[in-house]
Write a structure and sequence with these properties.
alpha+beta, three-stranded antiparallel beta sheet
Length: 216
């Protein structure tokens, strides 16, 4: 799922979009997964309940991959072609655009996508530098127990694809008062933040400006 603008900030900077890949325990597949989900729903009234998730956060920046002189940036173009292919496979242009947005028009916000190149997209990610911390879900009930990994380097996304992702709530005053579908920034408090650079783990860096987006 995606949030636009991003839910994390790095160096105080928001990104145009952040995608979350939510990982469940390997054993929570098939019937076991259905049981896993039901057990969690039963815990919704328990604020102290902890999930066992790992979430990968990937940032995106809208760009046409051209420099100030209008010349194409080849490395950026290659990445943009990959991200465009990834999002185009989801057929988001077939999702009906309504005035209420996807929350109210839930049945109109689903389309069939059979051939999403998830593996090739994941294989292409730059995982050499990322931030890691123990945190929570960013949507209610905001349970703790989430192992967050947030990639440092953002991927490019075209104006067209970003527009398709956000078109059912961007500019819609009825949806979060035009503030997007991200959660408010919260302080680190006593959380330990780690920065991993090419496999080398830095010591906890509480002064590093990467803040946690979650419901207050």
């Amino acid at each position: 799922h995606v949030h636009a603008p991003s839910e994390h900030t790095i160096g105080g900077k928001y990104f145009d979009m952040e995608m979350h890949f939510v990982m469940l325990p390997h054993s929570a597949t098939g019937d076991a997964h259905e049981k896993f989900v039901k057990e969690q729903k039963a815990k919704e009234g328990d604020a102290d309940y902890k999930v066992n998730y790992a979430v990968l956060g990937v940032m995106f920046t809208e760009t046409d991959c051209k420099d100030d002189a209008g010349k194409a940036i080849k490395e950026c173009e290659a990445k943009l072609k990959m991200t465009d292919s990834f999002f185009e496979s989801m057929n988001m242009d077939q999702i009906k655009q309504g005035s209420k947005g996807p929350i109210e028009n839930r049945n109109d916000s689903w389309v069939k996508a059979d051939k999403v190149p998830l593996k090739s997209f994941m294989d292409s990610l730059d995982t050499s530098q990322f931030y890691a911390y123990e945190g929570s879900l960013t949507t209610p009930p905001c349970w703790e127990g989430v192992r967050w990994s947030v990639l440092k380097n953002a991927l490019p996304i075209s104006k067209k694809q970003l527009g398709l992702v956000t078109r059912n709530y961007a500019g819609n005053e009825k949806f979060a008062k035009l503030k997007g579908n991200n959660r408010v920034i919260m302080p680190l408090n006593d959380r330990k933040l780690f920065f991993i650079d090419n496999g080398a783990l830095s010591p906890p860096l509480p002064w590093l400006v990467l803040q946690i987006g979650r419901a207050s």
